[in-house]
Amino acid sequence: MTGVPADASVGEVFPLRDRVPALLVGHAAFAASMLEVAEAIHGPVGDIPCLSNRNLGTDALAESIAGAVADLGLPAVLLVDVPGGSCFNAARRAMRGREGAHIVAGVNLPLLLDFLNMRDRLPAAELVEHILDRGRRGMRACRGHEGA
């Protein structure tokens, strides 16, 4: 970040604001399991509902997503497991035409942890761009012979 002192705290760079609400959506136990792991690292969250597609068709899941987002309010971020999968398609269907609905698909743990750390510091649209970058940077590939 340009112009930010090296010793600046996160709170100085990103002042506190209202938390951006979120919904985790995924196949089987993905959403609940991902949140459980994130809470083990981050600490208790308590305000991010998780939805599974288990025993639900796309239409029924879209209805569940729409209901959960109505409870959360907009703007909100929907964090979905697989781009192009049934959960993603249900999220797109549920949020079609809804201003302030942001869908992020391909969620990984670095992205979710950064979301949890930054959701009270950035508005929803900026937060989405921030976590997408973090999610991409959170992936690495190396060959075993390259060492640590």
- Distance N to C terminus: 28 Å
Largest sheet, strands/sense/barrel: 4 strands, parallel
From the alpha carbons, calculate the radius of gyration and give it in angstroms.
16 Å
Number of strands: 4
Describe the strand arrangement of the main beta sheet, using strand numbers: 2-1-3-4
> Topology as H/E string?
HEHEHEHEHH
Number of domains: 1
Structural class: alpha/beta
Proportion of helical residues: 40-55%
Uncertain stretches of 5 or more adjacent residues: none
Strand content: 5-15%
Count helical runs: 6
What are the key terms here?
4 strands; 148 residues; single chain; 12% strand; Rossmann fold; four-stranded parallel sheet; globular; alpha/beta
Describe the structure.
The mean pLDDT is 90. Helix 2 (30-42) packs across helix 5 (109-118), helix 3 (58-72) packs across helix 4 and helix 5 runs antiparallel to helix 6. The chain has a 4-stranded parallel beta sheet with strand order 2-1-3-4, with helices on both faces. It has helices at residues 10-13, 30-42, 58-72, 86-95, 109-118, 124-137; strands at 22-26, 50-52, 76-80, 101-105. The protein is built from 6 helices and 4 strands, in the order H-E-H-E-H-E-H-E-H-H. With 148 residues, the chain is an alpha/beta fold. The chain has a single domain (27-132), classed as Rossmann fold.
